[in-house]
Design brief:
Rossmann fold; 2 domains; globular
Amino acid sequence: MLNVSNLKISFDDNHVLDGFNLQLESGDIFALLGESGSGKSSALKFIAGLEKAKLGSVALDGNDLSDGGSHSVKPELREVGMVFQDYALFPHMTVFQNISFGINQLSKIEKTIKVEQLLDLINLRGIEKKYPHQLSGGEQQRVSLARSLATSPKLLLLDEPFSSLDKSQRDQLVKEVRDILKKAGVTSILVTHDESEAKEFADKVGKIEKKKLLIK
C-alpha cells in the first residue's frame, strides 16, 4: 500500500533524515518513534506532500506521489488524511459541519448519511449540532478523526494526536482510535515519542535512530 524509499531531508546543513525506508501493507497501523527533532513529523509531511526532500520517493497504492525529482502530486490529490495534536476543528462550525467540510461533492442527503455513518463509527451519534467547545478533549479528537476519514483516504497520518490529553483520557482514546481505524480498514501512521503508546496502538513499530528508520 505504501512505499517510502531512500528519503533524505535536510534543513540547511542539518541532515534530519538520511536513508529512511518504509513499506506498509493495506490496513497496517504503524507507529513512528523518535526523539524531538529526529525527523518524525518531517517524514509525515513528506508523505503528505507538505514538505520537499533532497532525495526520496513515495508511492501509495501503486501510484507514484513523489519520485525524488520534479514529479510531486499536490497534497490535496494524494488521498492522504491527517489528524493533528490540536484537533484543528473549526470553532464556529457544528460537529456536522466540521465532519462534512471536505465532502462538498456529495448531495445533502448523501452528506447526512456519510456523517451519520462516521458518528456511528466513532460512537458519538447525537452530537451533530454541538460545537467543539461543548465537547471533551477526547470527543474533539474523535470528531477530528471522523473529519479526516470523511474523504475516504487511502492513508491516514496522525501527528501526536494524544499528547495534549491526560493519561486516563490518552490510554482510553488510544484503544478507541485503534479500534476505529481497524473497523475502517485504513492504513495509518502514528507519530509519537511514547513507546508504550506506540506498542498499544500499532501493529508495527519503528524508531528513527541516527537519521534512519529501524523497525522494532
